Every structure is written in structure tokens, then in C-alpha cells.
Amino acid sequence: MTTPTNASGASASSSARYLLRGASLLGRERVDLLVEDGRIAQVGSIAGAPGATVVDAEGLVALPGLVDVHTHLREPGREDAETVETGSRAAALGGYTAVHAMANSSPVADTAGVVEQVHSLGRRAGWVDVRPVGAVTVGLAGEQLAEIGAMASSAAQVRMFSDDGMCVHDPVLMRRALEYVKAFDGVVAQHAQEPRLTAGAQMNEGVVSAVLGLPGWPAVAEESIIARDVLLAQHVGSRLHVCHVSTAGSVEIIRWAKSRGISVTAEVTPHHLWLTDELVRSYDPVYKVNPPLRTQEDVEALREALADGTIDVVGTDHAPHPSEHKECEWAQAAMGMTGLETALSVVQHTMVESGLMDWARVAEAMSVVPSKIGRVADQGRPLAEGEAANITLVDPSARWTVDPSRQATKGRNSPFVGRELPGRVVATFFRGHPTVLDGALNAPHPQAAPVVAQ
Amino acid sequence: MKHLLSTRDLTPGDAIGILDTAEEMAAVNDREVRKLPALRGRTVVNLFFEDSTRTRISFEAAAKRLSADVINFAAKGSSVSKGESLKDTAQTLEAIGADAVVIRHSAAGAPHRLAVTDWIQAAVVNAGDGTHEHPTQALLDAFTLRRHLARVAGTPSAGADLAGAHVVIVGDILHSRVARSNVWLLTTLGARVTLVAPPTLLPIGVEHWPCAVSYDLDAALDQAPDAVMMLRVQAERMNASYFPSTAEYSRLWGLGDERFDRFDTPAFKDTVILHPGPMVRGLEISSTAADSDRSQVLRQVANGVSVRMAVLYLLMSAKESAR
Ligand SMILES: [Zn+2]
């Protein structure tokens, strides 16, 4: 599929030229794209490009490089689960050119030192832009604001702040956080989970939990926090992002908030777009996740909400765990699922093939808006001349079966194990460099490009 | 039938088959020499992650009366309490050559994991998992009730189902594995079930269960059921605001002396009281009711051995023929 036309060919240099031939731009018109010096040099019908490596993109959809607003890279602290290197390889293979690394590492990313460490690990790895998320509160403990300003002005240029994994449940602290981040053009990404209503919770509370005898995680525990937070965001005039929306009721609240002009964005995970709590009947902890898998009604409401823009983005909540944390009793098992290498396929299956979204809308939800929320420079941009060459080529006609043991992530906890998925990422260009070619990892970006906020 | 994990999996035929086999086992238990050679040379492991002397000795007696070798593996004080995983424990039991594992665990679904993973090939019997199920308890309750109904009707119990019977189950349904297993089994056998509890102790989703639900014990008793099953209520539930006080609980949902007086009326002539034990006297049941001739509690214990013999026999002989 890749034909080097000169000796320098696919050598790992961002100064190399690539001619992407015959790609379908956002699933629409067929164009050639010339990539040069990390930028898109030309878009249209290109007769020839001397010295360029030609990538046959016939039948492939060209999207702006995907941007994940919600990734757990586990480093520092849980390198047995994932590292910045393995997680960002997985991201590249999934078509991503940027990820937001959540703050619940060990130590917690609640200081400039830790976010700079994660940031530099990302640059050293060179597969994607790694944008550290800073903790809202010290140690995610929900008691005292972390040094948000120091993280914002650090080399990591943090713009997204989240205690993800924990809810900022104290209403006063949440108000202060929303207010404070305004000074740095920041956003608070809330993991909406009322802690008292979910003490010991193991799965969605409903028909299935009643039969299985597992303590329930009621929808109201998510919805009550979202309702409170959108009102707080309105009151103080701040930006709020709601992580992993999982219920039909949450969708209604967010729809209402948006209709009132409140500055709220919302995210849905690929797994919540497809899977339901019926799978928990197997007691297989691969289906254990927080927030939990909900009902078919919720799945349908989430799909509609993503299609109509009530939910803005798809975030993977990629959460790798070592196998011993999943090969055990349900109650003892860790919560979380991998997602980077399956997200685009799951979105194709649930949203594109169902007719709810076209590829242009997929680009909005998986690249354009995520980069706006995280204020990521040079990402989520139009595939146009002069823009940074962050490009994903996907073959929508491909079919493949998920085998976690063959994935780049260290986590083997994919809930899609054994399922046949549509769509395969054929190539990922990160700042003009192919991190993925012919569906396989190529090489990291040869230069540690500066990663800055807009 | 390879495993017994849940009574939901049982067809009416399966359930009647187990109860009929238990009748044959009960006949053995009435003999002078209470032992059958059926499982000689086979190994049953009682894998108890949760203390329950009553259930463990019942399974132990059942296995021994079938001549099986019995290994009691209590997780407390073993390598399990030092962090050994369920998977490692299961693989150890597989290496030892366990033919059946009777597992009691505080985590719902633990028996299910043992049965469906490749950790161990043995037949798995759920002896109570978290707040999920306790199938042998439900089977012994059904067995006890079937015998009672047969005695009243003057018909043989073998081959019979529970069609037409009405059972009221009272207490902490939310946290009760016994209630869940009984709802599925009793209704599979044709009985009508009414659950009675404060709304706080009923699971969200109970409206989808094949039974009636009431908050009013007196109203439920107005129907003069064939059996009233009182479930244990832990006084600590009060601290989590499931009910305001033990006194109020007893008054509204307990089988106290005043309510038990109703059993003297003709409509209640043949009504029996079931309790899975251990009882909290004075909370969910008064001593007068517990010690009355309506109480089947000791019969339940005796029948438990017969039912567990039947389950082990059916699972392990099925396994034999499968090999
Ligand atoms: Zn979260």
C-alpha cells in the first residue's frame, strides 16, 4: 500500500513528504493530500509530488487526527497497567494524535512537577500529543484545591482539570474550582457520582442488579451531580465538562442546560454507546466499569444525544488494568475498560452504520470539539492547506475481530473481546509523520515537537 | 445439570427431579445405617470464604452419607486470607482432584466464575453467594413445603409440584439470597409468592419479579397463605436508615405474638412457618411462634441434608457419565 518513490522513503523524518492519494475527505469528496514539513501543503487533485512517499488512500476516509479527552495512561505509579509509551502507541493505532492523560496516577498529577513529568514522557514517546490533566483537589481527596495555576503555567500548559475516578462532591469546592479555572481559560471535567448514593456500588441499579444481588449504582447519583454542576457553572459563568455521561436522564439535564446557554460540554464513552448491564449477568469483570453499563434505553438516548450534539464528544475513558485485577470475583475486580484501539470502530458501528452520524460529525465528536475543550493547539483542525498534518486514514470497509492479546495497550480488559468490528485505522499522521502505516505501528515522531496550549 | 448456581436455571422438571431424589435420600436418612456407597472415591471440597457452620456441616453430612471424601477449606486462616486469589485457590483444588466444589462466598457471582472459567473442571455448587442466591436453601424450603402440603392433602409428595400453594416471604428481601432463590424456585414449581418488606428493603426492579409485593404484613396474612417464611433481619440495618428502630420493625414486619394469634383461626389451620435460620428472636419472630408446632425450622435443617445429598449425587453422577 505504501510505495516509497525515493531512497529517503518512509524514513522517520518529519521533513519527509507524503502524498496521500485518493482519500475521501471526511467521507465526502475524493482528494489527494500532500504532507510536507509537518503541515498539509496541498489539498486537491495533485498530479505529482517529486520525492514524496505515496500512500494509497483509495477508499479510505481522511479524518483530522483523533483527540481523546479522557485517557488513563497510569504512569507514574502503575506502570504494570500501562505506561505513557504503551498507552500512546495504543492511541496512535486507534487513530489518535492527542490524548488527555487523567490525573489519577501515583503520585496524583496535582502539582506542576507531576504534570511536567507526564508531559515530557509523552514528548519522549513521540506517538501523540500527551496533554496532562491536572487534579482539581490535592490527592483527589476532594478537600483542598490543587495548585491549578502552577499546573496551567507549567511546561505542560494544563487546561483541563479533573479529579476523575472521584467526584468533586463538595458543592462549595466545586464552585470554587469552576470559578478559579477561569483565570487560566481552564475547564473542570467532572466525574459525576454522588458518593453517598453509590457507596459500595457494583453495577447499574435496576432490573438486572435486583436479580444478581449486586449493590446498585443508581442513575440519580450521576444526574443529581450534573444538575447541580450545570447550575453552578451558570451561576459563576464557567466552563464545565461532564465526563462519561451514562444515563438518559443526564442527557435531558444537559439538553436543558444547553438550551439555557450554560457553557457545558459532555462526553460519552464508546462502551456506553453499545453495551448494557445485561452483560453483567455473566459476572465477568471485563464488564465492570464506572459509571456502570446501563440499559438499552440509556444506550439509545446516548446515541441520539451524540447525534444531535447534546453530547459533544466521544471520550474513551481508556482504563487498562493488570489481568489479576480482572480475573477475580466481581466485587473485588477493578473498574475500567480499555478503549483507545477500538473507539473509532465502535463509533462507526454504533453511530455511522446506524445512520445517526456521517464522518464529518465523527470528526467533530472525536477531534474538533475534543481539541477545543482541551485547548490543544494544532489539533482538530480542518484538513486544509497550511494546517498541521494530523490526519487519520480509516478503511471503513474493513472488518476485524478484537483480540486483546494483540493490542498495544498493556491492558487485556477489552469488553469487545471476540466481537467483530467495522473499520480499521490504516494510517495516522502526527505532525506530518506517519506513526501508523498499513495498519501497523511505524515509528514515533523523530522530533520532540513542543506541545503547547492555544 | 453440571453445576447448581441459581434456581433460575432450573426447569420444573429439574426441580421436581431434585426433590424426588431428595425423597429417596431422606429414606436413607431414616435407616439405621445412613450411608450409601454412591460417591465412594470421589472428593467434595467445601470451600467456605464466609463462616457458616450450619451450611457447611449440612453439606459435609450429605457428602459423607454418600461415601465421598470431604475436604473442608475455610478461607479464614488459610493462604486465601493472605491475598491468594480465587483463581489460584480454584487451580489448587483442581490439582488436588476435587470432583465437586461447594462454595460459599461473600461476593455475588463467585460460584458462577468458578463454573464458567477454565480454572477448575469440578462441579460447582453455590452454597450462598453474597446477596445473590442460595439455591440449596430454596430447594430444602420447597422440599419441606411439598411434604407439608402432601401430608395435609393425604397424597404422596414424590412427583408433585407446588401448584396452588401461596407463600409469603417477609423481611430483608434486598439483602437476601434466600429470598431470591425462593422466588425463582417456588414460582417455577407453580406456587404463588408474596414478598412483604419495608420499601427500603426491597430491591429496585422487584416489580419485574414473578411475584406480588406488599408493604403490609397484615394484609398479606389476610390471604391465609400456606406458608409464611420469615427472613433474618440484621439490627445493624437500622444504622443505615433502612428502618428507624428494631421496635418499629418488629411491630410492622415481625411475626410477634399478636400476629401469631391469627394462626389460631380456622383459615390458618394448615399454615406453617419457615425460617432459614439463624433466627433473631424478638425481632423478626417471637419465641412463641418460633417454638410452636407451626414452625418447620428443625424439619428444614433435617431436610437440608437430604436435599444436598440429592444435589451432590445428581451433579457428580452426571459428571461421571460425561467423562
Ligand atoms: Zn471517571
Describe this structure in words.
The complex is a heterodimer of chains A (454) and B (323). By secondary structure, chain A is of the alpha/beta class. Chain A has 2 domains: 17-62 and 385-441, Urease, subunit C, domain 1 (Roll), CATH 2.30.40.10; 65-373, TIM Barrel (Alpha-Beta Barrel). Helix content of chain A is 26%, strand content 21%. In chain A, helix 6 packs parallel to helix 7. The longest helix of chain A is centred in the middle third of the chain and has 18 residues, at 219-236. By secondary structure, chain B is of the alpha/beta class. Chain B has 2 domains: 7-133 and 302-321, Rossmann fold (3-Layer(aba) Sandwich), CATH 3.40.50; 135-296, 3-Layer(aba) Sandwich (Rossmann fold). In chain B, 39% of the residues lie in helices and 14% in strands. Chain B contains 11 helices and 9 strands. In chain B, helix 2 (53-65) links the parallel strand 1 (43-48) and strand 2. In chain B, helix 5 (135-153) packs across helix 6. The longest helix of chain B is centred in the C-terminal third of the chain and has 26 residues, at 297-322. The two termini of chain B are 14 Å apart. The model of chain B has no long low-confidence stretch (mean pLDDT 93). The A-B interface holds A 202, 205-216, 218, 282-284, 324, 327-332 and B 8, 85-87, 105-110, 112-113, 116-117, 129-133, 177, 180, 203-206, 208-209. Residues 164-165, 191, 243-244 of chain A line the site of zinc ion (ZN).
